[in-house]
Amino acid sequence: MELKGRHLLEPLNFSVAEMDDIFELAERIIKNPKNYAEVCKGQLLATLFYEPSTRTRFSFEAAMLRLGGQVIGFSEPNSSAVAKGESIADTIRTVACYADIAVMRHPKEGSAIIASKYSDIPVVNAGDGGHQHPTQTLTDLLTIKLEKGSFENTTVGLCGDLKFGRTVHSLIRALLRYKGVKFVLISPEELKIPEYVREEMKRAGADFEEILDLKAALPNLDVLYMTRVQRERFFNEADYIRLKDTYILDKAKLSHAKESLMILHPLPRVNEISTDVDSDPRATYFRQAKNGMFVRMALIMKLLGIE
Ligand code: NCD
Fold first, then answer.
1. Is it true that 37-132 and 135-288 share their CATH fold?
2. How far apart are CA 99 and CA 205, in angstroms?
3. Is the pLDDT at 91 greater than 90, yes or no?
4. Distance from C-alpha of 219 to C-alpha of 103, rounded to nearest angstrom
């Protein structure tokens, strides 16, 4: 099946082969961006951001502009008719009259799914509450592929807020389709992965453990995926303050890790990676952010059926 006209709401909407096609195109774009500078001429991308964002929105907008297309949207829902009480269904129906593809971030789980039901144009979920974030997963996977070659037989540590971290939920779901991936889930008791994710791992027969101690886990990891404690999803500030600095990766701790470790982070970082790690060759998170733009260029082209 081709990707033209499809929605991307969660990672499993695309098969492994379809994701490979996107990565392959992203790699071609990275090698030769000039060849793609005009391919989306005359096409319009709409960004509907009901929640703050830097990388996701800018990388989508930069991606469309670098493909020669144009961009409309809001990054502050109160500047649109949302402030007047318009529903997601009506907003997307309207946007679909003007644009060719829509990217949506929303604080409520399931909002992108609702939008997709009312949309004639492809809807991309750029994060729905604490649920899923599939384009971050494309970014993460492309980064692992470019720097490690493959996903198979890797031990992946995911550390921090595994409960509310939507990037974690999407990444695990996607990685479960590859052979020999071992998961080490590092979090405080209160921020363990949701039961539905644990069930998915069990159903897939995945090798996983849930532990508290980052330092103990470090020596075995090939990839370490650090995450921010998701302040905006907490019911009370005191819990956030108590948990926010549970894990801080610094140079001293890194001395226990493999030389070949890859440190990923979807960003924004708050305190969980000390800036003294940034100059370490294992710190991959800013290259990861850059890959996010290229993989979104490839995604936009595929969903618009351009090539
Ligand atoms: C993530 C998100 O929005 O879920 N950021 C991103 O898209 N790169 C992670 C986060 O906000 O912590």
1. yes
2. 42
3. yes
4. 39
Q: Over 80: is that where the pLDDT of 1 sits?
A: no
Q: Give 71-88 pLDDT, tens digit per residue.
A: 999 998 888 888 888 999
Assess contact for 111 and 104: CB atoms under 8 A. yes
**Any ligand 1 atom below 6 A from CB of 167:** yes
CATH ID of 37-132, from 3.20.20.150, 3.40.50.1370, 3.10.50.40, 3.30.870.10: 3.40.50.1370
Rounded to whole angstroms, how far apart are CA atoms 187 and 212?
5
Q: What ligand 1 atom has the least distance to the C-alpha of 126?
A: 7
- pTM equals 0.97
Using a 6 Å cutoff on CB, does residue 169 contact ligand 1? Answer: no
CATH code of the domain made up of 135-288: 3.40.50.1370
105 forms beta bridges with 49
Both tokens assigned to 79? 């500047």
- Going from N- to C-terminal start, the domains of the chain cover 37-132, 135-288
Across 33-40, average pLDDT: 98
